[in-house]
Design brief:
Blueprint: E1 6-11, E2 14-18, H1 22-41, H2 47-78, E3 83-89, E4 92-97, H3 104-128, H4 136-156, H5 164-177, H6 180-207, H7 211-230
Parallel strand pairs: 2-3
Antiparallel strand pairs: 1-2, 3-4
Helix pairs in contact: 1-2, 2-3, 2-4, 3-4, 3-5, 5-6, 6-7
């Protein structure tokens, strides 16, 4: 991530920042919603409405990402671990926690808090849908946020360190082995294997006629491999 970030404010005393790379994913998300997703679900909207609803939905999606990271951060603060900031960037968001958790139990609860927050948000937006059934833009927004939050939770539960699922896996290994370094090495190795599968899957999609999806999946795999290696 770039060192230059845009401050957005503080939540629970934690600085929330915007990396310049976020603008690229915001534009891509808005474009995908306006050109593909919403026209497929709602065929009779004016063209400008697709773009407006797409942009608002993209903003609320990234607000959901901030809440996901706040889930991690609040639990970290409860375990007396400092949280330096939350930053939104091209891959979503990251909470910069200032120290390793003091125990395997703390690691487990801090790691699982993010996906649980996303599942709760998905359930919240699902409950709103009947109230908005007669207002198609609001129905579209709540339907997408229901879907994307559960997708965010499930993706993060993949046991590839340093994803949340990988940290949960490390916490379990740490609790069993009583050795944080050994648990990190094993979880990091699994994370690199999963990252390699992402890269291979992306390359396969490129050569089977889906270059856009393939490049994105391969790029995510490359990012995860670098993150796992760094850990």
């Amino acid at each position: 991530m770039s060192r230059l970030t845009i401050p957005l404010g503080r939540v629970f005393g934690i600085p929330v920042r915007l990396d310049p790379s976020w603008f690229l994913i915001f534009v891509l998300t808005t474009w995908t919603l306006a050109v593909s997703y919403f026209p497929g679900e709602f065929e009779d909207w004016p063209r400008v409405q697709y773009w407006v609803v797409g942009a608002v939905t993209a903003v609320l999606f990234f607000a959901s990402v901030v809440l996901h990271e706040l889930g991690h951060s609040v639990l970290a603060l409860r375990f007396k671990i400092p949280v330096r900031s939350i930053t939104l960037y091209i891959f979503g968001g990251v909470a910069q926690i200032g120290a390793e958790p003091p125990s395997a139990v703390a690691e487990f609860w801090i790691a699982i808090a993010g996906p649980m927050t996303s599942f709760a948000l998905s359930a919240f937006f699902r409950l709103l849908q009947p109230a908005f059934a007669a207002v198609s833009p609001l129905l579209a927004l709540t339907k997408y946020l229901t879907y994307i939050n559960v997708s965010l939770a499930l993706f993060n539960l993949i046991p590839g360190f340093p994803l949340d699922g990988g940290r949960v896996f490390r916490a379990i290994l740490w609790g069993v082995t009583k050795n944080l370094r050994r648990a990190t090495l094993i979880a990091g190795t699994l994370g690199r294997i999963i990252a390699s599968l992402f890269i291979l899957g992306g390359v396969w999609q490129i050569f089977t006629g889906r270059p856009g999806n393939g490049l994105w999946i391969a790029f995510i795999g490359w990012f995860l491999d670098n993150a796992a290696t760094g850990q």
